């Protein structure tokens, strides 16, 4: 099976930074609750703002990829993320929560470009039958970024004197992102464009997207998955603090463990996907997620911190595998299909405020019913609405 390893490794480095940027939301939320004296609903504006870009930009980004190719699109993405990180410095100088949200929106715009461009780009860097493995491989580095960020960022944010320097990790991230942009600029990363004679129109994208039924249903599955992931991670530290009585540092340690689990299982999944069909693996892991959510909500086992961290084992494969299942065998429509899938990431904006309202009224523990219900929907998609089950149902008719 052929893979283009050099561009894959550069993408992997970029995804390491993507993981760190996503994880920073989970560290930022509890620190800003303390710094700006926010309730849970107000604090979830972080996730709302972060994921809002996915309803605004996917189609314009798909046009950019169609017009300029993947290399220029990814360079633009990394530079945009660096700009957003730099905006945290004036946000701290003026101590402005609205400016923090603006910075998050800019970062998210860059990450939206990466999600639209990088995942289908990785799927193209080799033989078609290795696409699931390549997407999972680069996403493992994202999970490693998630894993190392909580402990490091918490140490950088909270000083011994009690000061909250929420801007400091972002300043370091901005420098690292500019370095990666330089590497991408001087590298021989292939540009790769969609077919030059292909027409680009919004109506055409929506119409062709609906014709690929596994992609159409995959958009809904991704919507619920992103809602579940944003809720799970965003309320992880608040759960540890309010339900289990942990300190910020101890809670961050278990969030790191959660992401270590996702990284390790993500690596194992690259091998498992050689032997287990992707939709079945997603379905079985979905069942595992639902069971662990139920335990975290209904029971106080004395080991709930490990139950919550254990969610990382089953969540590990979800985004890359759902993504690759949805764009499986859609040919030249892959880039635009990726844009449609990224619309669904708006789920990360929709569900956390709902969980926040439940947490304010009934407590954080009960609020985890929201990601539980989301994963019920993901599991149903995996077993009944991916490409292979749809083909089997058509053959029976």
Give an account of the 3D structure:
- There is one protein chain.
- The chain has 397 residues and is mainly alpha-helical.
- The protein has one domain: Growth Hormone, Chain: A.
- Helix content is 80%, strand content 0%.
- It contains 21 helices and no strands.
- The protein is globular.
- The mean pLDDT is 88.
Descriptive key words:
397 residues; mainly alpha; Growth Hormone, Chain: A; 21 helices; 80% helix
Provide the fold topology.
Elements: H1 5-36, H2 40-43, H3 45-56, H4 58-68, H5 70-86, H6 88-93, H7 97-124, H8 131-157, H9 168-186, H10 202-211, H11 213-234, H12 236-242, H13 248-272, H14 278-298, H15 304-315, H16 318-326, H17 334-343, H18 347-362, H19 364-367, H20 369-384, H21 387-396
Helix pairs in contact: 1-7, 1-8, 1-9, 3-7, 3-18, 4-5, 4-7, 4-17, 5-7, 5-9, 7-8, 7-17, 8-13, 8-16, 11-16, 11-17, 11-18, 11-20, 12-13, 13-15, 14-15, 14-16, 14-20
